[in-house]
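Journal club prep — side note

Before the paper discussion, L.F. wants everyone to see what a predicted structure for a comparable chain looks like in token form. Sequence:
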Amino acid sequence: MPAALTAFHVKHDGEAGRAWSAGLPALTKRYLDEWELRLDGGPAHGVVSLVFPVVRRDGTRAALKLQPVTHENCWEAPGLRAWAGDGSVLLLDEDPETGTMLLERLDGGRSLLAVDDEMKALEILTALLRRLVALPAPAEMRRLGDIAQEMLDDVPQAMGVLGLERDRHWLGICAGAVGELVGEPGDRLLHWDLHYENVLAGEREPWLAIDPKPLAGDPGFDLMPALHNRWEEIVASGNVGRAVLRRFDYMVDELGLDRQRAAGWTLGRALQNSLWDVEDGELELNEVQLAVAEAVHQRL
């Protein structure tokens, strides 16, 4: 079992994380037996999950994904089930009790980062996002309205932590934008983490989305990952604000979104990311989040 994966779970869940990691060999064997799978290579892992390439009894290549059930990833299987492979990786089997999933095999070594042309990569990602957010969210899905209200409730405490007037100013602007929209949170099925490394090459389709954190909400809340990832290309453009807006405007136009609402919800993502940073002990806002907020604020 990868030591880095164990270290993450111990750091975040203490002895429970250590116990879950120690149980991975037995858990893997359980599903290899129950789902009649054979290993087809060594494991790979992200921050939270362990993934094995496997082959089903009928010869279908698949991926066995093991992860603990948390409030963050427990919605992954319901979201994938709803999309049924339309723009996303296919869910072939699941056990909600343990969070284990059997997924369509994609090329884990080839993400959209392999597409050198930044706008071509954005075009592919946006086309997938258009398909994903076309679907109404299942009734039981967690909702953006609740998450947005929790964010607003956390703002006063964060204001008391931030030392720079500039940071408090921009946190207030982002919170104000969310306050204007919280009563109309939307009902589309969102991915919530659709950045370039979460789009992998496949056989059924050239590119498919993986690792969603689904929720019901406004598609404007799904733009931020594509804006602040591949940031080195934004910087290399020589004009950060213009480069951010180039991506933002392209996605808004292709998705047919209201520009002001999309800007407001993107500021909501900057607020969310900033609140997470403060929760993790940061005393200043992240410069990338600030740069995106400053650029997108022009579209309000």
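L.F.'s comment for the group: The first helix runs from residue 3 to 22. Keep this in mind when we get to the figures.
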